[in-house]
């Protein structure tokens, strides 16, 4: 009988033990889940704190954007003019917009522009090399005390070129009456004309002599480039 009773009561004990184990495991799982949830929430909170320091929300965003835009407008208003030659925004001389270029190529200092014109090729002294706008100039005769000798800046090769051009032009003028005397003089004169056209009338030589004429004129006259219309 005792064995039967023990056998009968044994399943109840095992059932109770099983229930206790299941309850304890469920409690452990709940506690683990709670711990994970708390750690997740703390991490999210810390991330939100970090992001709030980087990206201000609501009114802070509007105020910061408005302040930054106003400061940017002030910068653009104060420092929108940059000289294309010296790359400076300081007002070292009068500002000038001599051509139709826009952006950073629009503004120049008058002193920088005049210094550049003194060394620029002839084709760039009267028109912009970028937009091809012809500069507006105002010519004025200098007082007599301000007249000076032209500064040609000629080299030995330039002097030899001038001598060659003058000699060739003189020969063409001198031998013109006799160019039709015979066949030899005709072909000789034709060769002089061809050489004169290829050398003296070339674009490079014309620009060279135009620079000389410009230097002569500017020695007694002053020119001022005006703003482009």
From TrEMBL:
<keyword id="KW-1133">Transmembrane helix</keyword>
<dbReference type="GO" id="GO:0016020">
    <property type="term" value="C:membrane"/>
</dbReference>
<feature type="domain" description="RING-CH-type">
    <location>
        <begin position="75"/>
        <end position="138"/>
    </location>
</feature>
<keyword id="KW-0812">Transmembrane</keyword>
<keyword id="KW-0833">Ubl conjugation pathway</keyword>
<feature type="region of interest" description="Disordered">
    <location>
        <begin position="1"/>
        <end position="28"/>
    </location>
</feature>
<keyword id="KW-0862">Zinc</keyword>
<protein>
    <recommendedName>
        <fullName>RING-CH-type domain-containing protein</fullName>
    </recommendedName>
</protein>
<dbReference type="GO" id="GO:0016740">
    <property type="term" value="F:transferase activity"/>
</dbReference>
<keyword id="KW-0863">Zinc-finger</keyword>
<keyword id="KW-0472">Membrane</keyword>
<dbReference type="InterPro" id="IPR011016">
    <property type="entry name" value="Znf_RING-CH"/>
</dbReference>
<dbReference type="Pfam" id="PF12906">
    <property type="entry name" value="RINGv"/>
</dbReference>
<keyword id="KW-0808">Transferase</keyword>
<keyword id="KW-0479">Metal-binding</keyword>
<feature type="transmembrane region" description="Helical">
    <location>
        <begin position="184"/>
        <end position="201"/>
    </location>
</feature>
<feature type="compositionally biased region" description="Low complexity">
    <location>
        <begin position="12"/>
        <end position="28"/>
    </location>
</feature>
<dbReference type="GO" id="GO:0008270">
    <property type="term" value="F:zinc ion binding"/>
</dbReference>
<dbReference type="InterPro" id="IPR013083">
    <property type="entry name" value="Znf_RING/FYVE/PHD"/>
</dbReference>
């Amino acid at each position: 009988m005792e064995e039967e009773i023990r056998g009968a009561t044994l399943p109840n004990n095992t059932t109770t033990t099983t229930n206790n184990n299941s309850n304890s495991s469920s409690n452990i799982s709940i506690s683990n889940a709670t711990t994970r949830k708390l750690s997740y929430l703390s991490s999210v909170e810390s991330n939100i704190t970090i992001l709030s320091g980087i990206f201000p929300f609501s009114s802070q965003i509007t105020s910061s954007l408005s302040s930054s835009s106003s400061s940017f407008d002030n910068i653009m208003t104060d420092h929108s003019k940059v000289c294309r030659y010296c790359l400076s925004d300081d007002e070292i001389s009068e500002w000038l917009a001599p051509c139709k270029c826009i952006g950073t190529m629009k503004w120049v200092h008058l002193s920088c522009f005049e210094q550049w014109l003194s060394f620029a090729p002839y084709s760039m002294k009267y028109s912009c090399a970028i937009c091809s706008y012809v500069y507006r100039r105002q010519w004025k005769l200098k007082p007599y005390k301000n007249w000076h000798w032209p500064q040609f800046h000629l080299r030995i090769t330039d002097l030899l070129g001038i001598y060659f051009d003058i000699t060739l032009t003189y020969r063409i003028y001198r031998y013109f009456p006799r160019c039709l005397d015979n066949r030899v003089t005709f072909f000789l004169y034709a060769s002089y004309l061809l050489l004169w056209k290829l050398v003296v009338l070339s674009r490079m030589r014309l620009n060279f002599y135009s620079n000389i004429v410009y230097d002569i004129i500017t020695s007694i006259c002053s020119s001022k480039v005006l703003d482009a219309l």
